[in-house]
Structure of proton-translocating NAD(P)(+) transhydrogenase:
Amino acid sequence: MRIAVLKERAAGETRVAATPETVKKFIGLGASFAVEEGAGETSAITDEDYRAAGADVLPMAQAVAGADIVLGVQAPDVMTLTGAKPGAMVAATFDPFRDKDRVDLYAKAGFEALAMEFMPRITRAQSMDVLSSQSNLSGYKAVLAAANQYGRAFPMMMTAAGTVSAAKCFVMGVGVAGLQAIATAKRLGAQVSATDVRSATREQIMSLGAKPVFVESVEGIEGEGSGGYATEMSEEYQKAQAELVSSHIAKQDIVITTALIPGRAAPRLISDAQIATMRKGSVIFDLAVAQGGNVEGSVADEVVERHGVFIMGYSNTPAHLAPDASALFSRNLFNFLSAFWDKETGTVTLDEEIGDAVRLTKGGAVVNERLKG
Ligand code: NAD
């Protein structure tokens, strides 16, 4: 079994889909491994590191030649896969709802596209889940970036020259990124509050020592919601939420928004009018900026100033922590493929539950239920 990893070509992508650690582990399973020259550079991994782990480090076309499996952070252009085995597996993120053309091209080329963001939220797949591993780092980075932009301190400081009061930080959306954002802001000494539409997050917020802020008048999503995810909320809920946010946000210094709904644009949580009520110098970090944004006026990779408030967000937050993000992403890929690896035959056979969830294309067709209709 030949596995190939190419240099990521998407703008701003600094991660890589294999590290020397996972190269060694795949070789331990009996695979041979090819890495494109310079693939690890932006994640602080040299070609020499890959060679020492047992990989062949080659120019792109030679690296991909004869590959049975290609690994990527973002799915490579089909053009770059010329020379891979017919029907080769390509495991990467595909952004399948927004990039349907790419999915079609993979189908036409006959590859088996495996979308890592479609990994089911089940216990045994936790170690394979790139959304979780990358969101966790994103939540951390969002707070650090906001703290850096904020002209005041996070912790309360009692000094001979007087007291500096603690920053007030509000986290909106308490999934994996939100939980890490709460924990990070707490570690930095902020007073933290948080909200979500899922009732199950109330306890999680409190267990991190933060204050839950919830819409009480209209019912949200009881428990975890389908597959753990949120759905679009009713108009009545959205109105009640806007009122709650308006009264709370005026007293906040830092707001981190993380709300996403799979397959849809991110819900709008903060309006320009609400931003106008915040103290000058406050910072809003919109982690959903690349999915349409939770915050009115947010622009990816820019710091926008509105009413004296800074609004920011990155198009690719984990790429700002490339060595750690690559290490976790690569382990997710290894955990995924090794779970279905037959050492004797040297083949990978996915089971129904996980295979049907992640497989986008096979045998020349788009086969994923979530992409049909
Ligand atoms: P996500 O990135 O899809 O969304 C972030 C958060 O935003 C979610 O908590 C969501 O409820 C919230 N949200 C959506 N609309 C909102 C709105 N209008 N206002 C406020 N908040 C809103 O979430 P995620 O990090 O992928 O986590 C989703 C769930 O999946 C969680 O319950 C998490 O614990 C669970 N999970 C399970 C596994 C597993 O079992 N393998 C792995 C990861 C996550």
